[in-house]
Amino acid sequence: MKKTNRRIFIQQLGIVGASTSVFSLKPTRSLASQKIKKIGIIGLDTSHSEMFSKDINEGSLKDRGYRVVAAFPHGSKDIPSALGMKQGIIDAVKKMGIEIVDSIDSLLKKVDYVLLESNDGRVHYEQAEKVIKAKKPLFIDKPMAENLEKVRAIFELAAQNNVPIFSSSSLRYDALVREVKAGKIGKVLGADVYTPAEIEPHHIDQAWYMIHGIEMLFTVMGTGCKEVFRAFHPDFEQVVGIWNDGRIGSVRGIRKGASNIAGIAFGETGISQLGPFAGYGPLVAEILNFFDSGKPPVPAEETIEIFKFMEAAQRIKSSNKTEILI
After folding, report:
1. Would the pTM count as exceeding 0.90?
2. Are residues 219 and 248 in the same domain?
3. Does residue 201 have a cis peptide bond before it, meaning omega lies within 30 degrees of 0?
4. 88 and 165 share a domain?
């Protein structure tokens, strides 16, 4: 997928996210009777920072008692797509009354919870370290880091400091994905998903964007993948996983032509569509539930296995093992 197409795709998702109405599972009271729980954002180089802030401060989640009050704008130092949108996001959040601060240390003095939104996974460990040592509950947006090693390091640091964290794609909380996970079609026997798959050279290939589809796949299939196969072309790819019990799941990555994030799940009692993307609201609601409870909704083990899956696919590409039909 060309970078210009990806920017258009992100803009379209942002429009959907802003307009999608979601309901909270938590009872609400008037804000006048609640103590405002203050959220800080790290990284204003992604549309997520603007859309999440709108949902919390002005949208369907505004009665939950949370407010985004401050943001540290800096994330990527060299990814053109991130740097290109940064000033626009800064301007947008300032219009919401969100204070722009000049350091993470300053941010942490003003907030109770943190959304780490920096577009570039390479800076996440360094930024997360400050938050974790300050003992603030933390959500880390995708990609959690640029590779498996850094993902493990972040989880280990959080465990050592007894700080709750989690990372997730918004696709995990798609309505049909949640229905399937809850048993709508019985045990899931397999699933096929597709997703945009732009590659960013400083990250393992699938961590940058294809992770949306991979996370959808693992949400309905669960953990236990034991074997990975990958067919790669600069414009497309297909990654197939085989689970311990023989179930098969696949992800098609699209870099050319029409694209979306969706799929299909095959169950014991039925077949269900998954997706397409319908807004950020359900993920943001889950983040607030996490801040309420302190209990991560996605286990560290599952996020680690997702990165193991992607790194296995990376090794297959690097080894260039194929057989030519004669």
Report:
1. no
2. yes
3. no
4. yes
Count of structural domains within the chain: 2
Q: Record the tokens describing residue 29, joined without a space.
A: 């009271």
Distance CA 289, CA 67 (A): 14
Return the beta strands (E) in 48-196 as ranges.
66-72, 99-100, 113-116, 138-141, 165-168, 188-196
Domain shared by 205 and 149, yes or no = no
Residue 12's CATH number: 3.40.50.720
Domain of 140?
3-169
What is each CA distance from 120 to 8, 77, 206, in whole angstroms?
19, 8, 14
Give yes or no: residues 97 and 229 share one domain.
Answer: no
- The two structure tokens encoding residue 109: 């003095």
Residues 165, 295 contacting (CB under 8 angstroms): no
> Model confidence over 221-264: pLDDT tens digits?
999 999 999 999 999 999 999 999 999 999 999 999 999 999 99
Instruction: Give the Cα separation of 209 and 89 in Å (integer).
Output: 20
Judgement on whether residues 156 and 181 belong to the same structural domain of the protein: no
Q: How far apart are CA 61 and CA 101, in angstroms?
A: 24
- Domain identity same for 88 and 23: yes
What are the pLDDT digits (tens) for 49-68? 999 999 999 999 999 999 99
- DSSP alpha helices (H): ranges in 58-123? 80-95, 104-108
Alpha carbon distance 178, 47 (integer Å): 24
Cis preceding linkage at 143, omega within 30 = yes
Residue 116 sits at φ, ψ, to 5 deg, of: -90, 105
